Amino acid sequence: MRPPRLRSRTATALATVGLLAATLTACAPPATDARPLVVVSTNILGDVVEQLVGDQARVVTLMKPNADPHSFEISAQEAATLREADLIVSNGLGLEEGLQQHLDAASASDARTFVAGDAIEVLDYSEGDAAGMPDSHFWTDPAQMLAVVDALEPALAEIEGIDPDALQSSVADYRTELDDLDAEMTDAFARIPADRRALVTNHHVFGYLAERFDFDVVGAVIPGGTTLAAPSASDLADLVDAVEETGVRAIFAESSSPDRLARALADEADIDVEVIELFTESLTDADGGAPDYLTMMRVNTERIVSGLTR
After folding, report:
1. Burial of 106 (0-12, 13-18, 19+ CB in 10 A)
2. What SS3 class is residue 274?
3. In 10 A of CB 206, how many CB atoms?
4. What is the mean pLDDT of the chain?
């Protein structure tokens, strides 16, 4: 039998070796994620891409929750990540104004890109400072998002490391979700009387929804297609007239923009107009009410119906 002192020294040595190994493991850098990298500009598109690829790819969304897609910017590290992507997914159509230089640089360096605006039936703004320019807010019509998903599938399938069969299955599942959403919105909006189907918002964001579901966009507090524009006194006066003539019962303010202008319009019109917040250009964090695209659209639909039928 081994002497007691020797047993104690052996146990101590083994414990020391174990502790050293554990320390080295803890200090070692994390293993590199070998999955392909997909970088997405906006969080709405980021959510959709994540639904399609699941854990087959690492999806990095540049736009943070509750941000404004017209004005958000990225860090130097995020710009470097953009250049390393196996695929870059963006909205296009002039939406990512603060990011465009980085998207252009990546495209010039032969990075693989997917622009959602190339996959849809683009509508142009009909009035305001942006009249004649393409409207980038296609996601307010789920049928347009469905077209984006259909075009995204082959682009994602070409990425090395993504299983086309698994991708096809997840795309089919998400297409069903979009079809269900479309049917729900159609049924819900049908409850709004024809003489109340008028929308006033912070800025022109509902062109696609209005075209698809037969709404009249009475006007926007900010007359352009971007939140970076500003209304003039005559713009506000014209909107006051429109609100009074149409008798709209609600003004819809976006969650990504302050609603003080919409409230000022409601006060100036001196009529009973409710200001209702919608999630239009950005998703929220998990607790913010619109953590994903499908939820965002359902919440907005319920609030529009409630506001226009009260």
Report:
1. buried
2. strand
3. 25
4. 83
State whether residue 61 is helix, strand or coil: strand
Position 128 pLDDT exceeds 90: no
CB neighbours of residue 290 within 10 Å: 25
254: three-class secondary structure by DSSP: strand
Q: Are 120 and 144 in contact (CB under 8 A)?
A: yes
Burial of 65 (0-12, 13-18, 19+ CB in 10 A): middle
For the record, the structure tokens of 36 come out as 């392909």
For residue 179, what are the contacts with CB-CB under 8 A and spacing of at least 6?
146
Structure tokens at 260: 């003080």
3-class SS at 218?
A: strand
Q: How far apart are CA 170 and CA 153, in angstroms?
A: 10
**Dihedrals φ, ψ of 278, to 5°?**
-120, 155
Q: What is the CB neighbour count within 10 angstroms for residue 32?
A: 6
β-pair type (274-278, 250-254) = parallel
Geometric angle at alpha carbon 259, from 254 and 263, rounded to 5°: 130
Calculate the CA 256 to chain-centre distance: 11
As a whole number of angstroms, the distance between CA 215 and CA 165 comes to 40
Number of neighbouring beta carbons within 10 Å of residue 159: 20
* CA 191 vs CA 66, 109, 303, 304: distances in Å: 30, 51, 13, 11
Instruction: List Cβ neighbours of 19 (8 Å cut-off, separation of 6 or more).
Output: none
Q: Which two tokens stand for residue 136?
A: 């980038």
- Reported as a single tens digit per residue, the pLDDT across 258-309 is 566 566 666 766 667 788 889 988 999 999 999 999 999 999 999 999 999 9
User: How far is it, in rounded angstroms, from Cα 200 to Cα 218?
Assistant: 6
Query: Which residue matches tokens 């919440």?
Result: 299
